[in-house]
Design brief:
The model has no long low-confidence stretch (mean pLDDT 83). The protein is mostly helical and 112 residues long.
Length: 112
């Protein structure tokens, strides 16, 4: 709440959306870097390709050179799920804060 008060004080009521938009651009840049490093470290493209090949395989019993480890896939999916849930939590937080700022600005307009 302190940052929201700082924005209200320095930029004025209803300006949190403008500030959040500016900060979101930087968040997006950093997120892309994080996802790229995660993908590289976890060999995500290779695993996705293996899963796609397995799914397209007409013969389930065909011999694959690279076996997929179900435990590794489970860990990977768990990490991806955590990343997704944190992103959703962030979006809900920002949305709530911007809406509150907007309501405060609208109430100030009505009162004035």
């Amino acid at each position: 709440m302190k940052i929201q008060n700082l924005v209200l004080y320095s930029a004025g009521p209803g300006q949190l959306l403008t500030v959040a938009s500016y900060l979101q651009r930087e968040c997006d840049r950093q997120s892309k870097r994080i996802v790229a490093e995660f993908s590289k470290y976890r060999h995500l493209e290779k695993i996705v390709q293996q899963v796609n090949e397995y799914m397209r395989s007409s013969n389930v019993y065909s011999k694959q050179t690279d076996k997929l480890d179900p435990k590794e896939l489970d860990l990977l999916l768990g990490e991806l799920t955590i990343m997704h849930s944190r992103a959703e939590l962030y979006v809900r937080f920002i949305r709530r804060r911007v809406m509150v700022s907007h309501v405060i600005a609208c109430n100030n307009c009505i009162i004035s």
